[in-house]
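[Meeting: bench + compute handoff]

Bench side (C.D.) handed over the final construct sequence. Compute side (W.E.) agreed to return the predicted structure before the next meeting so the bench team could plan truncations. Sequence as handed over:
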Amino acid sequence: MFRKKTHQPPQLFFENQPVSIRRDRRRKSVAIKVTDNRISLHLPWRCPLSLGEKFLEQKQEWLKNSLKKQLNQPVRRYNNNSQQPYLGQSLQLRFKPQLTSSFILNDEQIQLKLPTDSDQRIAKNKLSEAYQTLATDYLPQRGWQIAKKTGLMPARFRVRYYKSRWGSCHAGGEIRLNWQLVQAPISVIDYVLIHELCHLQEMNHSPAFWRLVGEQMPDFKIQRQWLKQQGHTLLF
């Protein structure tokens, strides 16, 4: 691992692989994420880059194992008759050119209005559109159910695209959710919802915040671990 000297902002590399640097005003600690075989270093807003470099050095073995694990993951396919996740269930993807709507969801299949010989790139785009539609309907509905159950009431829920996060809580009480989350098991979706709802009371990741999360979902660590290990498989 080394820093490349250029006239551009500093760049970090791990075994010749670039490490993206992301700063967050709300973040209190340094973290590393490996998503889709890409490494990102997450820093508090005013944290010196040198501390991030030191953290990367300390996590070298973890990084190697994480990258190796993701490389060994089977490549996700989007061809006709492939299996695709929805709410944690594995559904068959079927191309149906005769459909009158862009897609149909039933208990066993996600059907897309596509010629049966469509290539995976086109199918992937159509499937992502279907997921976005499903997420826009399901995630806010589930969010209000969890909000009423916990007594933590936001101003609104919005569904959008995030590249590397599953949700966020904003000033004014708005909670934003990544549409890709609709592929995850419902228990994992509930964890993300509870996580963001708890930020309405604790706008940080302090011990008080995690106590609140634990009160609302005693097994939250299991769901959080699922996201860490499997979340990258949901990303488009």
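W.E. noted at the follow-up: The chain is about 35% helix and 25% strand. C.D. will use this when planning the next construct.
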